Amino acid sequence: xxxxxxxxxxxxxxxxxxxxxxxVKLFNNQTVELSGDDISACSVEQSTSAAGSFNIGSxxxxxxxxxxxxxxxxxxxxxxxxAKILVRAGKQLDGGTIEWVSLGxxxxxxxxxxSGTIKIDALDRMSLFEKxxxxxxxxxxxxxxxxxxxxxxxxxxxxxxxxxxxANSDVDFSLKSIQQGxxxxxxxxxxxxxxxxxxxVNQNGLELSWYDTSAFEGEGWLDGGVFDDAKPYxxxxxxxxxxxxxxSSGDSVDSGSFENQSRRCVLPLFSSLTVYTDDVVVTGIxxxxxxxxxxxxxxxxxxxxxxxxxxxxxxIANNPLISYGRAAxxxxxxxxxxxxxxFRPFSGKHVLDPTLEAGDPVLVVDRAQNTYISYATSVxxxxxxxxxxxxxxxxxxxxxxxxxxxxTSAFVAARNEMNKQxxxxxxxxxxLGEKLGKASGLYTTxxxxxxxxxxxxxxxxxxxxxxxxxxxxxxxxIGISTDGGKTYATGLSxxxxxxxxxxxxxxxxxxxxxxxxxxxxxxxxxxxxxxGAEGSSLTLDPGSIKFDxxxxxxxxxxxxxxxxxxxxxxxxxxxxxxxxxTKTFLSDIYPGNPHGGRCYAKFDGANYIFWYNVTTDIYYxxxxxxxxxxxxxxxxxxxxYFAHNPNDPVxxxxxxxxxxxxxxxxxxxxxxxxxxxxxxNLHPASGNTVxxxxxxxxxxxxxxxxxxxxxxSNTTFMTNKNYKYMLxxxxxxxxxxxxxxxxxxxxxxxxxxxxxxxxxGYELVTPSDPRFE
Length: 773
Hints:
By secondary structure, the chain is mostly beta strands. The chain is built from eight helices and 49 strands. The strands form eleven sheets. Strands 1, 2, 3, 4, 5, 6, 7, 8, 14, 20, 23 and 24 form a twelve-stranded antiparallel sheet that branches. Strands 25-26-27-28-29-30 form a six-stranded antiparallel sheet, with no helix packed on it. Strands 34, 35, 38, 39, 40 and 44 form a six-stranded antiparallel sheet that branches.
């Protein structure tokens, strides 16, 4: 609901005649002001649900119809095609001031001229999403794309400011089922539906939200019924008023606070009204997932899941973002937003209230003064001619799961696309310019403090208490509130701390920046590192950074840290031996098994350093007990050990030794690196039984620390031991840096050539090369 002062509302109650003005920005950037008899007729349409049903995920384009008086030819010289129109409705208050309410920003499709008038049909900014989604999808991850990232990417492409957040914006989607030819508008509707929202544009940009059910929550409602023939009257609710002996007796009904009145619109002045006989209460959400996406074979049919109970069930199907196997997940997500909603469907013609928006909670009052809780799903305003308001829904008896699919609606009208490509900052500047150009001024309130100082308030309505947008200025800070001063979510303190929503800037210089998760999927990076000639590319993956040069070569930076890998034991884990027998069990390890599990070892220049963690669960019949033991540590093996012991190329370290069990961890060197394994020797006394129930061995599974590998030779030449050398202590490098390293006991150089700190070439050099160092 749009903000308006109490004086505005009182003036509207006395007389609903409105002033109308429009500011038109033509395609050539010329501005035309329209007011008075320039405008013959004006109407605005908004919807958050399709006609005849109550939908989840509607993304409906709003419409403006404007008729201009051109009998004297005053507009003959203007071309209104593709113009932007800001429309405002105003009311003159006591004292002569005029308070204005913005009805929205619209984009002209095609003006028509009829015998002295110009008829203009324009669409709101939802129409900007009528562009092919394929042009956005190519740059998005197909398997798992976050909802907020998806919406912001579409908004960036379509030049509409995105929402900072919305309910369930952290949900991930697969994009593989989105059909060819889908528009961005359709995908916005899919996202809205899968997250339990509807989509519309507000004064700032795109908004994904849902009906404000809290406007009615926590309140007790008593139905007075009708004057029926029963004695006493049989209809309506009953409440016990208690007695005069115990004033605490009787029923208590809470009708809420006056604060809720500002969050819902009361509609008592219908000239015609149709109200359903019963409330609609949403009892469940039934979701049908998409069919399975397969590359070969027959895909499985998408499953159906009901969250809630049978009754008035809203069914969702044919949403390509609800992929196979996730119906229950999305049913639960949507149900938390929708199930339990109670409202009364209605439709009628009412006295104009320009503050009402589609999606607002409303109290519908009929001629008998019966009051019904509902939501405005469709609003059509005719300035100085009233408005048509409705909440559409199928009746409970008709709303079976078969015919009540809540399908995303998008009423589309054609519009010529603008060719100019805008950055996010350009869009923000354009939006700021529009707000500065279309907004009315501010009112001032000064409150003098006891010490003689003053706190200044700048606000959007004549009265501070009636305002929603408030600027509060004190000696310590400037705060901006958009909820009437309850909270100040934006501001600047005197010591330089700023609380902002988004920052758009040409440059940003900072000593440090702290972030949460940084999503760089929509970030363009230029000149981070240049390799080779044209055709080189940079790939940023969760697991690595790759620099390709258009051929077999290339560099790859691996992440920091170590992956832990498990050594598989090839025997049945329940190994049992009864003395005097003895047995030795050995896991896969090189050289006995050329395909043994690889592991990583740190190298300090003279020694290999292995790490292990072994957990054993062993049963001893001699004591009748199980022993669960964990051993962890590092093993240092001289580099020369494997070369000097060809007959025993496996290094043993005993970690368990007693009268009946010995356990060794094993390490060896392979042509591709190192390997690890475990050996268990069971030698119980005669008549005793030893049973090994479980053995797990963990070792390092990949390079420890960041590293760079040259893909052509599969050689790691930069690790956490020498990266500081390459970074040159942060200095900008011009020329060649030589990286010295050892691979498989052979000395190598990597020559890296830099220009102004950018890597422009690299070369592997062997000892036979005269440039070798």
